[in-house]
Design a protein that fits this description.
heterotrimer, A mainly alpha (221), B mainly alpha (62), C mainly alpha (269), B: 62 residues, mainly alpha, C: 269 residues, 79% helix
Amino acid sequence: MDIFILILLRDLRLSFRRWNELAMPLLFFIIIASLFPLASSPEISQLRDYGGAVIWISALLSSLLALDGLFRVDAEDGSMEQLILSPTPLGVIVLAKIIAHWIVSGVPLVIASPLLALSFYLPLEALPVFILAIALATPILSVLAAIGAALTVSLRGGGALIGLLMLPMMVPVLIFGTWATDAAVQGENPIGALLLLASLAILSISLGPLAAAGAVKVAME
Amino acid sequence: MMEFMLMGGYAGYVWSAYGITMLVLVANVWMAYRFHAKWLKRAQEEGMTKVSTRQPRVRRIS
Amino acid sequence: MAFIRHNLVRIVNTISVLNTNFWRWFHQLASPPHVFALAGRVCPWFAGLAIIFLVAGTYGGLVLAPADYLQGDGFRIIYVHVPSAYLGMLAYMVMASSAAIGFIWRMKMAHGLAVSAAPLGAWFTVLALVTGGIWGKPMWGTYWQWADARLMSELMLLFLFLGYMVLRASFDDRDKADRISAILAVVGVINIPIIHYSVEWWSTLHQGPTIAKLDEPSITMDMLIPLLIMIIGFTAFFGWLLCKRLQGEILKRERQTRWVDGLIKGRTA
């Protein structure tokens, strides 16, 4: 438990030192979402139609951004090997890193999402469900991004490959998330989609760190 | 016979679907056999060049 | 009392003999020459089965099966679409489970099986998507529907196969490539139940499940039988090419060893 808190605080401290890395996923999120009305039409009715989808896709893409430093920096300076050798299971350490990553990249997204939703003229009544869905989805995205980073940590040009590998895995999150958003906008009951998102969240948080830890161990051999 | 060919008006769809399927299946057979033949040939060419990396069992005479 | 004890002992002995034999069989599967020979023996049987059942199924589907009440002759595409989709998922399960076995027991042959299954699974999934689109155009008016959950999950399956192959290719060290892509394959398994249940969870474009419903299937027997025959045919076809590719993969990995040398000399002698 000590090492868990230690790693969590350490990663957070490192991220906050490089504040530009903090801001990047959030800015990316906002910029991508803003490009859609520019590219298509700023009509209110149309914005409302695709607004939910646009925000979700932007969330998916920006979750892939901040993860390069997740394992690669530690792997390169040798601290990853020390972490592997420590008595604490690597899965626990990886979970700490994932939580730090989520705090840095996921939580700003959750905070910014209602503002973006309003800018796309999503109805006010849909907002609580929407925020909840994004709050459930961002941990899943962080876990999946971490798995992708772990799989490619020993490769040089890993960035685009992570996207190719993990975006298919993120598709259920997209499907359930937009389903919940649409249900809320239409006034229907979103509980089915929310429960599915929650179960994906529990599944990914419990098993994902194990997969990532296994991949890191193999890559560091 | 004509009726069979026409497939009740869906001829284009049914025959293209079956045609593509047969094409893909045959192509896969060809690719699998080609893969097999390629590595068989390579094995024949390279011969037994791999030196065994097994460490000899060291017996200590004490 | 002695009767019970005597038979109990016999049962326990039988179980332990079966257990030993199972593990002996399992560990033999780690031996390349053994697997190579096994694949060679089994391959022609798969091939024969595949050809017979594919021909019979095609004839049954195109000629013998009656036209559908609603869809007319267009529904015959089901006889190539459903087996392709099913084999795509089967291939993924083969790939993921053999990759997992290879990872846990460190069996190169299991990884070889996973590598062999990947391209086959990708092709089956492409076939399922293409035939599905062709079927969809006259029936639902569109080749493609981005919102359909099953279509999306099939596309996702294709990317999982491609991702496995691309990830493998990125590593120079074959052992590392095997094991890292094994992790990817196992993580992707969650996609299979999502595809399977997506048809029930969403009623967008795809029709409801046809065979797997536990009460009466909503398809008549004379339409169902060619479908089952085609599924068997496709499965045998998969097994056939799996054996062929596995043999090639073994030759690729082991080509500089003594036993392969003996095999070649034995062949050409």
